Amino acid sequence: MKSLSVAAAFVASVQAGLRFGCSSLTIQRLDPVVQPGSDPSSHLHHIVGGNQFNATMTGDVGARGSCTTCQMAEDFSNYWTAVMYFKHPTNGSYHRVPVVNNAALASGTTGGITVYYTPYDLSRDNLKQQPITVFKPGFRMTVGSPTTNATQAAKHIGLSYNCLTTLINRGPEMRDFPTKPCPAGIFVTHHFPACWDGKNLDSPDHQSHMYNTITLDGFTNAPPCPSSHPVRVPQVTYETVWDTTKFSSLWKSGDPNPFVWSFEGTSGYGTHADYMFGWKGDALQRAMNKSECFYDGCGSITKQDMSVANKCTVKDMVGENIDGWVSHLPGMSS
Ligand SMILES: *[C@@H]1O[C@H](CO)[C@@H](O)[C@H](O)[C@H]1NC(C)=O
Ligand SMILES: *[C@@H]1O[C@H](CO)[C@@H](O)[C@H](O)[C@H]1NC(C)=O
Ligand SMILES: *[C@@H]1O[C@H](CO)[C@@H](O)[C@H](O)[C@H]1NC(C)=O
Ligand SMILES: *[C@@H]1O[C@H](CO)[C@@H](O)[C@H](O)[C@H]1NC(C)=O
């Protein structure tokens, strides 16, 4: 008993960082980072976060937001990824794969994304290591690219898949889609870089204002930022759980992976994610300045009940059918 409580106290006293859930906000063909102003954008996205989400987003989103699907009530940021579809192996029709909430999140989270802001890694306190500066209003970035292929391992750092054996048992990290049915779904992770050039809220490729010093996957501490990108920001990470289970019986043993991304990505290497900063005022900096508590911001951030978060919505601005069996991926020719 004694050694157990000592271990628990040790863990509690040395962790830092934020982890929280955001329910699904909307699934639409919009992309205010890569294709601002396009309604529709080229491919479908699963989006969580604040209700300022729109085809074009400029200025201080956090100041304008009036509701958010995130548990952290002052976070009007938007977080999004491509959408997973199942491609029927014999007739070629597509069906959207539903998102389920991460088993570790606050009860009441519906679908959604688990969001992390980690200042160091998952086991050490930040302030004793390095100061963390948070993003400015208008900041945005992407990680990964639909065009990345298996030969470009360096472009795939921090982007991974796990084949869930249960909702909490993830199995090993993989670079590509699983090669056989997963008993409890597919777990997808996107880690963003943690070094910023300190000047640009965006860049033409939405990535070169950021720099990734991590050469391994996972929640590892990034080596020091280079002089080109000297500002250490929180490492933002998304986790999404795709409930593939109802398609398992249609995936016959020996057949290739039938899951595709909404950009027609049959290779898992094209997985990518977009981030639009939208915290209100200094709420995120306040949380990052705290130490020795993980997950909840040490009381520095107002949390809302997920039943309130789930009431936050945005309009369907595209108005197309994305569900049921469809002959084409939304916006795609095949
Ligand atoms: C989205 O953009 C349109 C066109 O600019 C605007 O009319 C609408 O009010 C915006 N919605 C939100 C929630 O900002
Ligand atoms: C493909 O198979 C699914 C499931 O059996 C069925 O619902 C769908 O209508 C089929 N699509 C076509 C084009 O036949
Ligand atoms: C992968 O992408 C790189 C860079 O675009 C390209 O040079 C290479 O030919 C591609 N490889 C394959 C197998 O498609
Ligand atoms: C965070 O800490 C830095 C460094 O100590 C300090 O300059 C800044 O005012 C703090 N910001 C907030 C919002 O607490």
Structural overview:
The chain has 334 residues and is mainly beta. The chain has one domain (4-309). The chain contains 4 helices and 19 strands. The chain has helices spanning 2-14, 61-64, 283-289, 306-309; strands spanning 17-22, 24-28, 45-49, 78-82, 84-87, 94-96, 99-100, 113-118, 140-143, 159-163, 173-174, 186-191, 195-196, 210-211, 231-232, 235-242, 259-261, 273-276, 294-295. The strands form 4 sheets. Strands 1, 7, 8, 10, 11, 12, 16 and 19 form an 8-stranded mixed β-sheet that branches. Strand 5 and strand 6 form a beta hairpin. The structure holds 2-acetamido-2-deoxy-beta-D-glucopyranose (4 copies). One 2-acetamido-2-deoxy-beta-D-glucopyranose binds at residues 131, 282, 285-286, 289. Residues 52, 54 line the site of one 2-acetamido-2-deoxy-beta-D-glucopyranose. Pfam families: DUF1996. Residues 31-279 form the DUF1996 domain. Residues 1-16 form the signal peptide.
